[in-house]
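New to this. Help decode both lines:
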Amino acid sequence: MRSRSSNPEIDKLILLISKLPGFGPKSASRAALHLLKKKEQLMIPLAESLLSSSEKIITCEVCGNIDLHSPCSICNDEKRSKKEICVVENIADLWALEKAEVFNGMYHILGGNLSAINSIGPEDLNLKKLIDRVSGDEVEEIILALSATVDGQTTAHYVADTLSQKDIVVSRLGHGVPVGGELDYMDEGTIAAALSARQKI
């Protein structure tokens, strides 16, 4: 869909914004106009922040989180329990759990779910590092905090089967997560209820 601008630079800006989640051509056009109207207050600081973030933010080699250093601040936090690893699909899910302040263990980001339709197999997920992490002596429980969707539950069962030979407890979120629900769209109370009511697989 063509934008209403006849300026290639503005068209490029609108196109890039439209690639962000939640933006279509119309909302991207409105966002671009707002940025252009607020160059000094918003557009230039945003551009500087984007450039700085792209240069400084890296992926944690342990859990897959993003931070200014690797291992990340969560993996390096001595006050957090090393006995539990909460497995999530993406960074947004980790942020949702951290915001709820109900979990004080470690995390592991899979980077998605198994999906036959989207041709995503086990080799496309961050599973090998998870297996390596549970091979140590410290980990006692893996909590699968995956979406209550078909793909999410398929992934949970696959991970549970993969870890079945390990001497650890594998559990998943309990009541509180509705069927089809995704963690980063839930309130803190729902997440807390789901985590406290987790069930052994």
Summary: Residues 57 and 201 are 35 Å apart (CA to CA). The longest strand covers residues 84-88.
